[in-house]
Amino acid sequence: MQSQKEVSFFKLIRELNRAKVRYLIIGRRAVILYGGPVLTVDIDLWIHPEDKRRVLSLLLDRLGLEISHPPDTKKPIISGFSGSRKFDLFFQRSVKNIENEKIEFEDCYKNSILKEDPREDISFRIPSIDDLIRLKKIRKPNVKDEQDIAYLLKAKRLFGKPKTR
Questions:
Q1: What is the model's pLDDT at position 3?
Q2: pLDDT mean over 61-88
Q3: Which whole number is the average pLDDT over 60-81?
Q4: Per-residue confidence (pLDDT) for residue 71, from 0 to 100
């Protein structure tokens, strides 16, 4: 299925919010939302695995995205494509990082920060700084990950712990 019009980040988030999907914006996009002076082209989302079928249906039927695997796949990571945009979707209850820490979706969601963009009249969830740092260590950090972690540690010292909602 070919996308008619490129789906924006905000359009996707609005649809996820409307469907009451439990998700977290992760990766470099989350670092940017904490004010990080970095760029990224893809969007990484960690989505509660119980919402997988609903999300894939929404991507295909409502938004017209192409996806990397059929909707009934058991794979925990699926990419969605719309024009030049790429959305990486992670459907796992938990992951382990290189420090052997088990990171649970439920815990990250409870600790998450609700961010708002008044210009777009939209809100979205990102992991706490501590959880985002832990998530950045799911694989051996590359140069970008190391820069992101250094920025997040600095932001944590400067801003303290933001309030969760």
A1: 42
A2: 92
A3: 92
A4: 84
**Signed CA dihedral, 56, 88, 149, 140: sign only:** positive
Strand partners, 163: none
Q: In Å, how far are 16, 27, 118, 126, 137 from 123, measured between CA atoms?
A: 11, 18, 8, 10, 26
Place of tokens 């799911």: 138
Overall CATH class of domain 9-159: alpha beta
Give the separation between CA 87 and CA 78, rounded to whole angstroms: 8
Question: Residue 86: which residues within 8 A CB-CB, separation 6 or more?
Answer: 41, 42, 43, 79, 80
68 burial via Cβ count (<10 Å: 0-12, 13-18, 19+):
middle
Residue 78 has pLDDT above 90, yes or no: yes
Handedness of CA 122, 125, 130, 132 (dihedral sign): negative
Type of residue at 21 = V
Place of tokens 């959880």: 131
Domain boundaries, the chain: 9-159
CB neighbours of 134 closer than 8 A, spacing ≥ 6?
97, 99, 101, 103
For residue range 96-123, list pLDDT tens digits in order. Answer: 999 999 999 999 999 999 999 999 999 9
Separation CA 114–CA 27 (nearest Å): 16
